[in-house]
């Protein structure tokens, strides 16, 4: 069974007609921009935290879009008890003192809001937010953003009802800020346009950070079936949290399953290759991934793999989480 915990809902805040924030009566460590995986009826879904760690109670913000989010909006109320997996995700600044160029569309504002709150409270950098929505009524956190805007935070709203869909040409107005670290979250077409614009303006790939979510087909809260081992083993060396571990690695066992079995606190969430929470880097050897819905070719070229989907190909493999 996955290592989940149960938390009580403190309150549900209606943000717009079709979006709510679920405030949790809980205290746990997380980084700005990370997400939680919730059990939503018969399915599991990943929802970003819109709160800032250490500054307020944890909360996820959910926009009604499919079965999972509809279940949240219609069934959760103050006093509800939720099953959640530990916070996960790599959509988070390395330093809150960095200058940040933030792009969000619709509910993509959720992890970006977490980053903004944390950076304004604990960082020193300047922030520029480009926030696209269908119309004025669909702007999540409109009042909060208005109150936070000022010397350090510039907010640029884009409304499709008035301006049409943003294009790469429109985004060239942000060229003065392309020395900033860029963070993108929203529907795939929106992020594709933003990515195209940033690359055209000369922003290197290592300064572009993209958050992607794909609906999970399985349920990480359920028992994970362990297949019988066939006797063949590779060897894996893993650098995790500054410590190196070496284990025999059965050919048919996924890397994440092996690390958890050995008692390591390896990060993960969906276990389906759809969220990047278990991403690590291969430094030596070769693996094959059974599923990959999140890494692009440049990630793969850089040696990034998903531990939850990786099986050994070579006899020895070295992995690092640093």
From TrEMBL:
Residues 234-322 form the 2Fe-2S ferredoxin-type domain. The keyword Phosphoprotein does not apply. Keywords: 2Fe-2S, FAD, Flavoprotein, Iron, Iron-sulfur, Metal-binding, Oxidoreductase. It comes from the Bacteria. Its cofactor is FAD. Residues 2-94 form the FAD-binding FR-type domain. Pfam families: Fer2 (PF00111), NAD_binding_1 (PF00175). This is 2Fe-2S iron-sulfur cluster-binding protein. It comes from Kibdelosporangium lantanae.
